[in-house]
Write a structure and sequence with these properties.
This protein is of the alpha+beta class and about 250 residues long. The protein is built from five helices and twelve strands.
């Protein structure tokens, strides 16, 4: 079978080829635009963004902190919302306290949080020196229990004794962590720290209905602030070591 190759057939083939190349280019461009847009949206969602509220969402209604200079910062990111409320500075001679309130998204909510990991994320005190032997305290507040432990820190040549704390409230919708330091290097009183945390109040709603409902309900309870050393719950009796599975 013979094909009649002439100028008309060649022109028609070239025309179809041009159309195919042009639409293939358009399709490839649209595909690449979609990929770039998807990557940009993913990166943007992972970047923290500052909130615009001028006042902190929460406060501690206690005279020990009312006269201290106050600063706050809040961010919204992929895993949830967080606000840092700070009274004074670590290097101050006077009392200072910092609390971070975290409101995780539902998929990040968890009642079991590791104390060392959570406190280690607080950059200003990440180089803290822990007491030895290390002692933990259970603080009780109207909102629920709080785990606490003492540490010391050298801030610009001033050594302060402080208490780091992490809430263990019954609600997974939010939690607190931070530290409290007494003035002039004095040893903090755990019960006094519990009483400060017991005076948590909301200034405006949090970005979680569950967190708002829990805090507002617990605020109706009478004041409750105590502190006790964590009792030994580990079996310290002699035992034979387990056979090593890997050598």
């Amino acid at each position: 079978m013979a094909f009649d190759v002439n100028r008309s057939n060649v022109g028609l083939a070239a025309n179809y080829t041009g159309i195919f190349i042009r639409y293939a280019f358009y399709s490839f461009g649209a595909l690449m635009f979609g990929v770039v847009a998807l990557v940009a949206i993913t990166v943007w969602n992972r970047l923290p963004s500052s909130t615009s509220a001028a006042q902190p969402a929460f406060q501690f209604a206690t005279s020990a902190l009312s006269q201290r200079p106050q600063s706050r910062a809040a961010i919204q990111h992929a895993s949830g919302w967080a606000e840092r409320l700070q009274y004074g500075q670590l290097y101050d001679r006077d009392v200072d306290m910092t609390t971070v309130m975290i409101v995780p998204r539902p998929e990040y909510q968890n009642l079991t949080r590791d104390f060392n990991s959570e406190i280690g994320q607080l950059q200003p005190i990440s180089a803290r020196t822990q007491a030895y032997p290390r002692v933990f305290y259970d603080l009780e507040t109207r909102f629920g229990p709080v785990r606490a432990s003492e540490f010391s820190i050298n801030s610009d040549g001033r050594v302060k004794l402080c208490v780091a704390y992490l809430s263990r409230f019954a609600s997974p919708a939010f939690y607190l962590k931070g530290w409290y330091c007494e003035a002039n290097g004095a040893r903090p009183n755990y019960a006094a720290v519990a009483c400060v945390l017991d005076k948590l109040t909301l200034q405006h709603p949090l970005p979680s209905d569950d967190a708002n409902a829990f805090i507002n309900e617990q605020m109706k309870r009478p004041a409750r602030c105590t502190a006790e050393p964590v009792s030994q719950t580990t079996d310290t009796s002699p035992r034979q070591p387990l056979r090593r599975l890997l050598r």
